[in-house]
Amino acid sequence: MIATVTTQPAEEPVTLTEAKAHLRVSDTADDTYITAIIKAAREQAERFVNGAIVTQTLTGKLDQFFNEISLPSGPIAGITSISYIDTDGETQTVDSSIYTLDAPQRRILLAYNQEWPDTRCQKNAVTVVFTAGVAVADVPQSIKQAILLLVGEMYENREETVIGVSASRLSLTAERLLQPFKIYR
Predict the structure, then answer these.
(1) Model-wide pTM > 0.85
(2) Hey, which of 34, 55, 60, 148 would disulfide with 22, CB 3.0 to 4.6 Å?
């Protein structure tokens, strides 16, 4: 399953004030730009760890139900809904008593003695809406620091190539800060 973000985080793990202090910027001329690169840095960190950093809603699609549904992002905060297209072509919602969430393993399992409903044989017949990430207050400091490093790199080096600097996906320090949170699929 590939999931897309359908509701962005309400706030970023790093504030504009924190980013400006890190950048040693005191005026407001670049506030809009800095706000944009905070979001971009968080998104880049999320791609590296293969998971959501702050609470956001994601939607994933499957062609059919499986005994175990693996969720592609984490940490998982909860399942909002599971819907499907029935054999008559109507969209139905699965009762939450039919399944259980194994959040640490990022998977949805059938509850004891339950069966998934029959779906129409078509692409994307099953839709899973779930919440992943943690509250901003619970984001580990090492993730915040990695985001600040990425913000600093993007602010200082606004072009793709900088003479005398080797290009990489993430700085080694940012990778080291994020590595403990990486989800391997």
Answers:
(1) no
(2) 148
